[in-house]
Amino acid sequence: MKVDIGPVTRLEGHLSIHTTVENNVITEAKSVGEMFRGFEVFLRGRDPLDAQQITQRICGVCPYAHAIASSYAQENAYHLNVPPNGRILHNLIQGANHLYDYLLHFYQLSALDFVDVTAILEYKESDSDLIALRDWVNAETGSKSRFPAAPFLPRLSGRYISDTQTNILALKHYIESLEIQKKANKASAIFGGKFPHATAIFPGGCTQEPNIDHIASYRSLISEVHDFIHKKYLPDILAVAGQFPEYWHIGQSRGGFLSYGLLPFGPELDSKRLFAPGVLLDNTIRPVDFDAIREDIKYSKYSSPSGLTVKEGELTPSTHKPGAYSWVKAPRYQGKVMEVGPAARILVDYRQNNNPKIKQLVDKFVGIAGITVDNLNSVLGRHLCRAISAVVIADFLLEETERIDLQAPFMAEYDLPESGEGFGATEASRGALLHYIKIKGYKIEKYECVVPTTWNCSPKDDRDQPGALESALVGTRVENPEEQIEANRIVHSFDPCLACAVH
């Protein structure tokens, strides 16, 4: 039987999943991006310095990653010498944005796949946290219910956490995380100017000059986020894992893993990073080669040529193209399917022994769960890898503030070149993000973005290989083919952003 479980809710953008189910097993899955936007088209002919502002509008959740990737691309094209402060400020802005996004993803977008929200009925009038949760939801929805339905009900049928106290604690953290997310966003805005869509991020640094007050405010906010991550977010992930151990073995993608690395230690684009770049393919780590990336469009709604490199990228919409089922392209690395995102970021770093803290945390929690490192390619693996990333980033940001030199420049000086080209690669919270810019006559001649969800939620490629999400769904047993809570849990573990994918 064929079942459309879309539109999938609790994610960014418009995603539909078309499945074929036989004997309660998904035998085929199609990931369908349902809209077209065309950022590469309307960037043409613009001033290059418009790019880091315009590309932020691709997404309101991870705008800073686009600003950083665009800035890196322009730094490459302009041959800039970036002052250390400039890179540190980029890191402080982007790192805080990652922390916000991880908490948003788990508590507001994914936890309700596992938490039994009816546990709120168990609250006592003395339980101020749950009363606050009830009152907040009622205020948002105009309800006066003792148990407000939105945004918790209706829900899919299936098994949820059975322990009442675990559920109640998770619901308390649901509302508490909203305040913590605000603090992470405030921290980003201290140096970025505002959230979302920072005004201060530029190639070579930031226009917001740091001072003691800024640094103290940033540290205070990140310290609160840091404590929540260590004391509540990570334990909540482990609590879910303890209730649903089978999800260490559900939702494996079939392919390799790609990461561009995150948060450089130095001003140079090739500096060592907190998370190492690399390609993990056939259990072997290789350096990233941007020329090995090609975008297929056999099943995408475009009439431009298939298999183009990033530099050659074209964008010609074809709404009624026969056989096409998605507005998302199908990027491939040396013709191979790649998963990007938190699991890729952790696995690529772990296999290289780049960051001792990552190796220590992975080994610790793999041991606690009684799994292998390979099981991080799973629903629970992606959730755990986000939490490990959050721990590592939060610790790093507090250290990074101490490296700011208030007497040194925080912004590179430069003149725009008449022509040039450059790649900018970073990690958005959802994974590998690549921007390419080509300048001619002081204007943008070509711009191309290959974003995380384009990798993860791609349709089949020219060789009929399903994308990472599609492959992760195939073979999954579902108790209720009409609802497929299992499929929804897999989809949410990738944290799709279709607004990015159909940019």
Task: Give descriptors for this structure.
3-stranded antiparallel β-sheet, alpha+beta, 4-stranded mixed β-sheet, 40% helix, Cytochrome-c3 Hydrogenase, chain B
Describe it.
The chain has 503 residues and is an alpha+beta fold. The chain has a single domain, classed as Cytochrome-c3 Hydrogenase, chain B (Orthogonal Bundle), CATH 1.10.645.10. Helices cover 40% and strands 16% of the residues. The protein contains 14 helices and 17 strands. A 4-stranded mixed beta sheet has the order 10-9-6-14, with helices on one face. It has a 3-stranded antiparallel beta sheet with strand order 1-2-3. It has a 3-stranded antiparallel beta sheet with strand order 12-11-13, with no helix packed on it. Strand 15 and strand 16 form a beta hairpin. Helix 5 (128-141) crosses helix 6 (164-192), helix 9 runs antiparallel to helix 10 (379-401) and helix 10 packs parallel to helix 13. It is globular and about 60 Å long. The two termini are 32 Å apart. The mean pLDDT is 94.
Name of the CATH class: Mainly Alpha
What's the end-to-end separation, in Å?
A: 32 Å
Instruction: State which percent range the strand residues make up.
Output: 15-25%
Mean pLDDT: 94
Number of separate domains: 1
* CATH homolog superfamily: Cytochrome-c3 Hydrogenase, chain B
Spans where pLDDT lies below 50 across 5 or more residues? none
Order of strands across the biggest sheet? 10-9-6-14
CATH architecture: Orthogonal Bundle
- The total strand number stands at 17
Radius of gyration from CA coordinates: 22 Å
Total helices: the number is 14
Provide the CATH topology: Cytochrome-c3 Hydrogenase, chain B
Give the structural class. Answer: alpha+beta
Biggest beta sheet summary? 4 strands, mixed
The coarse overall form would be: globular
